[in-house]
């Protein structure tokens, strides 16, 4: 009897121990898989967060680039006419002079001034004067057919046109087209009809080692003042210009 009870006790103890072990193993497996599932959920959530933050960053960078582009355009556009301003002109001409020197290509520059503009302001006021400048700018821009050509407001009633890879002959043809366009322009302001003319100085050359944008401006300006002195409403080519066989502004339309 005692032997049987002892065996039963041992069996119960063994069963209890096995139960504890199995329960512990089950609990450990449950904990392990729950932990694994939690880690996977955290990893998925982290990946989603990274993707979301990456997308938000890309959107922010795109918006920032757009804002910078808008700001750059605002900083290089003339407030009155909407064409490029003097700051853009200075940078662009300097870059084109370097390119002309590097590529041995002819660079042409037109300096354009509205004739008797002070008389327009004095007689009709600054509102009419501003209108004249805007209308002239619109018509000048329409005469440029190549995306590489740049019209800029140089200051006051003076404009400049940068013509990369342009022969003297082509620059002179364009200058004469511009002169005729403005001479035929009629500007309406209420019941007033105005007409104006422009004088144009032209310079075309291959930039030399010591050439600067200032040199191009001074030479073209000298030709412009000569046009003024000779009666206005005309195009004068600087005698320092060189003749080349490069394309004219109309050839790439």
What does this structure look like?
The protein folds into two domains: 1-76; 86-237, Alpha-Beta Plaits (2-Layer Sandwich), CATH 3.30.70.270. The chain contains six helices and seven strands. The protein has helices spanning 2-76, 86-103, 117-124, 126-143, 168-183, 213-229, and strands at 106-114, 150-155, 158-163, 187-189, 192-194, 198-206, 235-237. The strands form two sheets. A five-stranded mixed β-sheet has the order 2-3-1-6-7, with helices on both faces. The protein has a two-stranded antiparallel sheet with strand order 4-5.
Describe this structure in a few short sentences.
The chain is α+β, with helices and mostly antiparallel strands. It has helices at about 1-75, 85-105, 115-125, 125-145, 170-185, 215-230; strands at about 105-115, 150-155, 160-165, 185-190, 190-195, 200-205, 235. It has six helices and seven strands, in the order ααβααββαβββαβ.
Task: Detail the topology: elements first, then pairings.
Blueprint lengths: L1 H75 L9 H18 L2 E9 L2 H8 L1 H18 L6 E6 L2 E6 L4 H16 L3 E3 L2 E3 L3 E9 L6 H17 L5 E3 L16
Parallel strand pairs: 6-7
Antiparallel strand pairs: 1-3, 1-6, 2-3, 4-5
Primary descriptors:
alpha+beta, Alpha-Beta Plaits, two-stranded antiparallel sheet, 6 helices, elongated
């Amino acid at each position: 009897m005692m032997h049987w009870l002892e065996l039963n006790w041992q069996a119960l103890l063994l069963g209890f121990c096995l139960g504890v072990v199995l329960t512990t193993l089950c609990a450990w497996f449950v904990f392990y898989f729950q932990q694994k599932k939690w880690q996977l959920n955290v990893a998925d959530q982290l990946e989603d967060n990274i993707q979301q933050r990456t997308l938000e960053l890309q959107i922010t960078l795109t918006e920032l680039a757009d804002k910078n582009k808008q700001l750059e355009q605002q900083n290089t556009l003339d407030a009155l006419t909407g064409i490029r301003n003097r700051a853009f002109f200075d940078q662009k001409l300097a870059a084109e002079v370097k390119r002309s020197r590097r590529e041995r290509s002819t660079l042409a520059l037109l300096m354009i001034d509205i004739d008797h503009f002070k008389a327009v302001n004095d007689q009709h006021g600054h509102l009419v004067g501003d209108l004249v400048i805007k209308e002239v700018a619109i018509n000048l821009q329409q005469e440029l057919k190549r995306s590489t050509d740049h019209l800029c407001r140089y200051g006051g009633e003076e404009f400049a046109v940068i013509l990369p890879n342009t022969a003297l002959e082509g620059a002179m043809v364009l200058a004469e087209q511009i002169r005729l366009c403005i001479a035929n322009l009629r500007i309406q302001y209420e019941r007033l009809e105005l007409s104006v003319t422009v004088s144009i100085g032209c310079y075309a050359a291959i930039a030399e080692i010591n050439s600067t944008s200032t040199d191009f401006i001074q030479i073209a300006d000298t030709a412009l003042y000569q046009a003024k002195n000779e009666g206005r409403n005309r195009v004068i080519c600087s005698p320092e210009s060189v003749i080349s066989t490069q394309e004219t502004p109309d050839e790439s339309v």
